[in-house]
Amino acid sequence: MTHQPTLDEIRKAPKVLLHDHLDGGVRPETVIDLARETGYDGLPTGDVEELRAWFREASDSGSLERYLETFAHTVGVMQTRAALVRVAAECAEDLADDGVVYAEVRYAPELHTSGGLSLDQVVEAVLEGFRQGSEGRGIRVGALLTAMRHQARSMEIAELAVRYRDVGVVGFDIAGAEAGYPPTRHLDAFEYLQRENAHFTIHAGEGFGLPSIWQAIQWCGADRLGHGVRIIDDIQVAEDGTAKLGRLAAYVRDKRIPLEMCPTSNLQTGAATSLAEHPIGLLRRLYFRVTVNTDNRLMSDTSVSREFARLVETFGYGWDDLQWFTVNAMKSAFIPFDERLALINGVIKPGFAQLKWQA
Ligand SMILES: O=c1[nH]cnc2c1ncn2[C@H]1C[C@H](O)[C@@H](CO)O1
Ligand SMILES: [Zn+2]
């Protein structure tokens, strides 16, 4: 290994993204275009660069609740079929340009019906956009349907996810403010999904701590954890660096439960204080099944490559670490085993081997 991977080299690596919100990754210029086309008049500015900076700064609030307020503007312009097709197509294009070869992109269908679309029409529009944007670009994009945890539509959304599972929807999720809205509030939806042999992840351990993670896994049966950073509260590190895992942390590691970590987003919402102190460093050292994600590319002005580059800079990671995160993510995807394996052996490993050879 001669030098640390640079951002340009990382962009060329075949990457996998499991946690990315469609309404958190809209291009600023598209937000402005769509606002004009759909008559949305709530934007803080009509200038592309100012709007890009506004999202980044307004999201730096240190609170998940305030961070989520910025979504009013993206959701506000995503209320027509044409807008949803465009945003989804551009999402697939942007991820492919960043070198992502497999992505699971999530959004909440219930937030996109105020212009008169039905839930089914919302799902069909987004799938069409992913299809258009992926075509010929060497990327596969699956959808995760999110239910908002403060609302009461999770069963309906879970049924929607099952209905569309053979045509591009690969799983289910709950998102929104975590404190006060525990995962068990949606237990019926999770039990339904389990009976249907369907996959789901749960945002847990981001804006709230261990009880949320415990419920997500032990009551609801989550396959993966969105963020999960607060699992760190169940790990004690002695002065000599040795770590003692509590029962929940040990369970998460032993069962290889994937953690969808989103470092930059966590700094903005206050889930972590600095990148150097971000739990990802310890969790990677302890071989938890860590994956690296963007959460919201617009709000965090980021990409998978940039998240990787920041980790390289902070923790001194090399190609082997980046490949490890990537293989972890591919193993944790919600598509069938044989398809995951084909991507690992046919795309990811050869891609990283070439970059390592060139380094
Ligand atoms: O990091 C997050 N935690 C909880 N909820 C989130 C996060 N990022 C986005 N959301 C919410 C806001 C979006 O409107 C919704 C669906 O993508 O999910
Ligand atoms: Zn998220």
From TrEMBL:
Coiled-coil ranges from the UniProt annotation: none
Residues the record lists as binding substrate: H21, D23, G176
Cellular-component GO terms for this entry: cytosol
Listed Gene3D superfamilies: Metal-dependent hydrolases (3.20.20.140)
InterPro entries: A_deaminase, A_deaminase_dom, Ado/ade_deaminase, Metal_Hydrolase
Cofactor note: Binds 1 zinc ion per subunit.
Pfam hit, one: A_deaminase
Enzymatic reactions: adenosine + H2O + H(+) = inosine + NH4(+); 2'-deoxyadenosine + H2O + H(+) = 2'-deoxyinosine + NH4(+)
Positions bearing the site annotation: Important for catalytic activity: H227
List of catalytic residues: E206 (proton donor)
Enzyme Commission number, as recorded: 3.5.4.4
Binding site for Zn(2+): H19, H21, H203, D295
Entry cofactors: Zn(2+)
A molecular function GO annotation: adenosine deaminase activity
Keyword field: Hydrolase, Metal-binding, Nucleotide metabolism, Zinc
Top-level lineage group: Bacteria
Record's keyword annotation contains Endoplasmic reticulum: no
Top EC class, one word: hydrolase
NCBIfam families membership: aden_deam, PRK09358.1-2
Family, similarity comment: Belongs to the metallo-dependent hydrolases superfamily. Adenosine and AMP deaminases family. Adenosine deaminase subfamily.
Job of this protein: Catalyzes the hydrolytic deamination of adenosine and 2-deoxyadenosine.
Name by which UniProt lists this protein: Adenosine deaminase
Lineage: Bacteria, Bacillati, Actinomycetota, Actinomycetes, Streptosporangiales
